[in-house]
Specification:
The complex is a heterodimer of chains A (367) and B (262).
Chain A lengths: L9 H4 L12 H23 L7 H11 L13 H34 L6 H4 L1 H15 L8 H21 E2 L2 E2 L1 H25 L2 H12 L7 H28 L3 H6 L4 H23 L5 H13 L3 H25 L8 H23 L5
Antiparallel strand pairs in A: 1-2
Helix pairs in contact in A: 2-3, 2-4, 2-14, 4-10, 4-12, 4-13, 4-14, 6-7, 6-8, 6-9, 6-12, 7-8, 7-12, 8-9, 10-12, 10-14, 13-14
Chain B lengths: L3 E12 L2 E12 L3 E5 L6 H8 L7 E6 L2 E2 L5 H7 E4 L11 H7 L13 H11 L15 H15 L3 E5 L7 H16 L3 E5 L3 H7 L2 E6 L2 E6 L1 H4 L2 H8 L3 E5 L5 E5 L8
Parallel strand pairs in B: 3-8, 3-9, 6-7, 7-8
Antiparallel strand pairs in B: 1-2, 1-4, 4-5, 9-10, 11-12
Helix pairs in contact in B: 3-5, 4-5
The chains are: A mainly alpha (367), B alpha/beta (262).
């Protein structure tokens, strides 16, 4: 005899109905507190470190003093105060801005390409911006005053982003292989252009291009910071206004449209902001790659892929990373200022390999 | 007669030389489940995407509220109609509950967004995916992805629901459950358009069927009218039998030449 029983389901019994559980916000809050505190601590330490070492307490005292909140000028060294305010702080500020810009640009590119391997350096956006900036160096253009480099870098970055975007997409997605190969091609063309400009330029221009291609924050002064800061602030703020829509884009273009996203507009806006942020970073600091790859990836692992958290957290994380990298660049070897682009590539390159292998495994092939 | 929410008039779609759809007149009515059936390549999915406003037809018009459906702003359209596609991918590892929550995006900044949590919970319960809440979407099986995506469309709470082969990856229980839910929505006054391959399933759950073949509407009406053995055999190029069971339900069975093994 066979007894046929139907197992009761939650739906029928109406009891033990599991509740919908959500990710707790604690991790996000903890992350932002850590990033915020980390940023301040790193900034103070970085400002104090160097051949002329200034204790953290004096760095804080000097800032408070200038803000009219008590404190005192740097006392441990006669040149301390001026070293701090004319050399260290502008450089620290630039490191923060460039790091924030690159990491945010990376997060945005990954969102709009639907691909965790998209990054301004890898995809060729940085070299597009660099090519245009090199032209400014070689031809001595200054038709937009101090903004010339930044403006042309923006134009170059925008063209490169558009090229990569339209060449590497098909059916609303970007395959890993296509994206990387398109980046290779764009990097090659921009590299050829830079080589030509190096050839055309005089000795001084050549030297400038070479060092600038290696990426460095050496020689940063306040006027540069004054140009980069508004670009980065505007870029990051704009990015936070459409970050929620980037979440929907993760579903694919058609489903995003079904949920009310004006996909065309979102794509173009994102591309313009990516070019803006990359240009801001490249204009004075040169080519610093992989920041936009590493930072968003780590943030995603910590708090998930939601762009409303990812974008601002990447900005903070990128600022910390570049601040740290620049500290190593300045102090790693005595009496030498290492190229920061070399350092980030040294760490970022292997990380990129790891990501490629992981993506390949998880997608069951090059998808 | 119920209200036509979407009207297709003389709709055709052409990609270069290929005529995908031609001369289609069809209404999507409130309170009805409309099943689009037909052989592979008949144009079911293309018709669904035209009705949903994904693309404009190359001939004729598709009207929603008296205006071409593609003229509506994306956000406005998203509050009127929801779409479940055959394939549901995700570029980043969002949790299931976040994916369902994405269905609420069209209501952001409106009074309806107060109901977000309730809508998400009720949609997840209906689609039986509550236990998957914290799972990462890319780690789900095909059937689970499909159910989670269906929950997303339910959470969106649109007046017209388009489902493109929603049951393809589902087991029997969830196949029936999904179409029961679709019918519940229709009984509550919404319109449902569903592409199905299983004609018996379509017969059981639809109020009206539209049979497509070679890009044309071959038959339209109640399942009993559309499911004619001779017509189906011709359209599917395979002999088909339509059996009526004791309870009045229809079964569509392919005739097989294979010997029955014992």
């Amino acid at each position: 005899m066979t007894a046929v029983t139907t197992p009761p389901t939650a739906l029928e019994t109406g009891v033990d109905e599991p509740e919908v559980t959500r990710r707790s916000r604690t991790a996000t809050v903890v992350l932002f507190v850590l990033l915020g505190v980390g940023l301040l601590v790193c900034a103070v330490l970085a400002a104090g470190a160097g051949q002329l070492a200034i204790p953290a307490a004096e760095v804080i005292g000097s800032v408070l003093h200038r803000l009219g909140l008590g404190g005192a000028e740097v006392a441990s060294h006669p040149n301390g105060e001026s070293a701090l305010w004319t050399i260290r702080f502008p450089r620290v500020a630039m490191a923060l801005l460039v790091g924030a810009a690159l990491a945010t640009a990376g997060a945005l590119m990954q969102g709009v390409f639907g691909n965790p391997l998209a990054e301004p350096g890898v995809a060729g956006v940085s070299s597009g911006a660099a090519l245009a900036a090199c032209a400014v160096i070689v031809f001595g253009w200054s038709f937009l005053g101090p903004w010339t480099t930044a403006a042309l870098a923006f134009a170059g970055g925008l063209v490169a982003t558009l090229v990569v975007y339209f060449l590497s997409r098909s059916g609303g997605r970007t395959e890993v292989v296509t994206l990387i190969l398109t980046g290779v091609a764009v990097n090659a063309v921009a590299g050829a252009g830079i080589a030509l400009l190096t050839f055309l330029g005089d000795t001084q221009a050549r030297e400038q291009i070479v060092f600038w291609q290696l990426g460095s924050l050496n020689g940063t002064r306040w006027p540069y910071v004054a140009i980069v800061a508004p670009l980065v602030v505007v870029g990051v703020l704009l990015a936070t206004t459409f970050s929620r829509r980037l979440d929907l884009l993760a579903l694919g273009e058609r489903p995003a449209r079904h949920l009310g996203v004006d996909v065309e507009r979102l794509r173009i806006t994102t591309i313009v902001v990516v070019a803006l942020l990359t240009a801001a970073a490249v204009a004075f600091a040169g080519i610093i790659s992989f920041v936009g790859l590493v930072v968003p990836h780590v943030i995603r692992m910590a708090v998930g892929p939601g762009h409303r958290v990812l974008v601002p957290a990447s900005a903070l994380g990128g600022a910390i990373l570049l601040l740290g990298a620049d500290l190593v660049a300045r102090t790693g070897v005595d009496y030498a200022d290492l190229p920061i682009g070399m350092l980030t590539a040294l760490v970022g390159g292997p990380f990129f390999l790891y990501l490629i292998r992981r993506t390949r495994r998880s997608a069951g092939g090059w998808a | 007669m119920s209200v036509a929410m979407i009207q297709a008039r003389g709709v055709g779609l052409r990609f270069g030389e290929a005529q995908i759809l031609a001369g289609i007149d069809l209404d999507v009515r409130a309170g009805e489940v409309l099943a689009l059936v037909g052989p592979n390549g008949a144009g079911k999915t293309s018709l669904l995407s035209l009705l949903a406003g994904d693309a404009a037809p190359t001939e004729g018009t598709v009207l929603l509220d008296g205006r071409p459906v593609t003229d509506h702003r994306p956000a406005e359209l998203a509050r009127r109609r929801g779409v479940l596609l055959q394939e549901n991918r995700l570029s980043f590892p969002f949790e299931v509950v976040d994916v369902v929550q994405m269905g609420r995006a069209p209501w952001r900044g409106r009074p309806e967004s107060d109901d977000d949590d309730a809508a998400v919970t009720s949609a997840m319960r209906s689609a039986e995916v509550v236990h998957l809440s914290r799972r990462l979407f890319p780690t789900l099986s095909g059937g689970e992805k499909s159910r989670v995506s269906f929950a997303r469309v339910l959470a969106q709470d649109p007046r017209v629901i388009f489902l493109d082969e929603p049951t393809a990856a589902l087991d029997i229980r969830h196949q029936e459950r999904t179409l029961e839910l679709a019918r519940e929505r229709a009984r509550a006054g919404d319109a449902v358009v569903v592409v199905l391959h299983d004609l018996s399933l379509a017969a059981a759950y639809s109020d009206r069927m539209a049979l497509l073949s070679g890009g044309r509407l071959v038959a339209e009406g109640a399942p009993r009218e559309v499911l004619d053995a001779a017509r189906l055999s011709a359209v599917y190029e395979h002999p088909v039998e339509v059996v009526e069971r004791g309870d009045g339900s229809l079964l569509v069975l392919p005739l097989r030449t294979v010997e029955v093994s014992r």
